[in-house]
Each structure stands twice: as structure tokens, then as C-alpha cells.
Give the backbone structure.
Amino acid sequence: MLYWLGYEHLYHLYTPFRVFQYTTFRTGMAFFTAMLLSILLGPWMIARLRAFQIGQHIREDGPQSHQKKAGTPTMGGLLIGASIVFPVLLWANLRTPAVWVSLAGLVAFGMVGFFDDYAKTQRKRNLGLTVAQKFILEVVAALFVGVLLLGLNAKGLYSTNMNVPFFKSFTPDLLIHSWLLSPLTYPLAFVFFFGFLILVLVGCSNAVNLTDGLDGLAIGLMAIASAAMTGLAFLSGHAEFARYLELSRTPGASELTIFCGAMFGASLGFLWYNAHPAEVFMGDVGALGLGGGLGTVAVLLKQEILLLFIGGVFVIELLSVVIQVASFKTRGKRVFKMAPLHHHFEQLGWAESKVIARFWIAGLVLALFALTTLKLR
């Protein structure tokens, strides 16, 4: 909105308004706006959640030390979502379709989390939607994003070719156009595209959700991941840097820098209240929404594989649950003392604050490694 007002209209009347044309300026402002909104509205949101008696219900089979957290206000993800959406609408060029797709990914998965959180508060237990219900809704959200992406692709505003770390010229097409020998194979191409998209978006959203088990753990890692994605979006949107690094470009990728900057700022602002001991939890509405938003940006930037490193700790947490469940069902034995992985280290005697700090360090190292791969091609 301010881009339209400041640069396209007021700039001709007062030249300093030309600053609104610069992505770096608007990204910085989106970051500070999101962070301040999250910090300033935090006490009000916490008070409202307490007034509505929306408290966290702790899983009965979780660490006993966590039982004292029962009743802490949850669904703070509503604050995170608002702190992202408003700055993006304020500072981004809203004529850029990629911005709306990223917002769609954030909101669509956030709504799935909202339904799950609401069901938990109604049942007064740590059981919301069933696994099947939740998965179906997440798939629907991913399909919705996929339809938007195909719409952009039809207009030449989105490429289905993705970047592959360490390779310059290897950019496989998710619609596998080069493999299509006849119109009869078209449906298979779209099945592959949507299947891959579901894997990325549903996997990313659930990975963040599973990591959200300790005070500040998930939101701190999200701040790291969104900061890395901000840098990646800037490089992808800058013509010279993108050409030098040989990155597949999405029209309007530079505007995604503003979305990522807002996500970074909102995460830091929420961490102010979610740090140990947490005053509020983000709930599924926050975890699924942030995961969906992060995954959508990675798809738009054609960095789906690099997302595995940028959100490396999220991936490890998800894999720990998969390995634990698979091992118990096939061998009747557990690999970890408790899953997700952060609970395993708690059971080993690590203090909660130590687990959080060390996971943050691991997340930072993996995010920095992801960015270095852009030159190692």
C-alpha cells in the first residue's frame, strides 16, 4: 500500500519518497513493523487468551516437567499471523502475484492449525483434529497453493524448474515437460507436480509443528530460517546476483524479501514472550502457518531442496518421529527415549534451556551452510 502511495504517487511531488522503490528499505521497515506489532500487541493478546480461557493442554505421555506448563495461553500464532500479514500489505508491492501466493500459503495452513487448536480447547485435551482430518485439510491447503502456482505458470510468472544445490545447469522441471511424449501423459505430470508440492508444504508445516515442544525452540529456529530465506529472496530477486549465482528467477521474487523480512520480525517479536519460561504458546495456528508460509516461499524461489538445510533442525525433528514410529511398529522397539528429538535430550538429562540453545546453534550453522552452497556450484 505504501509502495503504491509513496513511490507511484507522492514521489513525483516530493523526491525523497523515491526511497519506497527500494526493496531493502521496505524489507527493513516490514521487519521492524512486524517485530513492534508482535511485541506491543503481545500483552493484549495474552490477556485476551486468558480471558477466553484458551490454555495449553499438555500431552499426558510427555515429559513430566512439562505438566506445570498446562494452562499457559496458546493460539498465540494469531498474533504472529497478524504481525506478518499487516506489514506485508503495508510495505510490499501488492501488484506482485507472488506476494499473494505466499500470504495464501501462510493463511491456508494457519487456518488448519486454528481448527486443530479450537478443537483442543473445546475438548479440554491435547487432542484436536484426528490425524486423517488434519492431513486432509493440509493436503487441501497445499493443493490450493498449487492451483495458484499453476495459474502464475500459465501467465509466465512462475517457473516449474527448480534449483539444485551444487549444480549450475541441472534445473529439473517439476512438470517434467521434457518427458512428455503425448497428451496422454499430461495427467502424470500434474500428479507429480502436486505430489511434490504436498510433500514440501505438508512436510514443512508438520516439521515446524513437531519442533514446537519447548519454550522458544520452534520460533527461534523460524527466526533463523526466515532470516536466511530473506537473504535468499533478495539474491534471487536481484538481477545481477541471480545471474552471477545462476539462480532460477521468479518474477517479483524481490517482493518476497518483504514477506520473509516480516516473518523474521514477527518471529523475533513473538520470541519476546515465548522465550523460557513461556508466557504464551503459538499453537498449531502459528506452527502450521509459519511452516506453510516458509515452504511456499521456498517453492516460489525454486529452492525446495535448499529448504532441507535452511530448516535443517525442523527436518531432523520430523525424521526422529518417523524413525521412532516406524521402528516401534516394525520391531516393537524405540530408537529414541522419546520423540521428537528434543524430548530425547531432555530424557538424557539436558536442561530445557540447554536443548533450546544448542538446537538454535545447529539451526544457525545449517542455515549458513545453505547460503554457502549458492557459491559452491
Observations:
- The mean pLDDT is 87.
- The chain has 14 helices and no strands.
- The chain has one domain: 2-311.
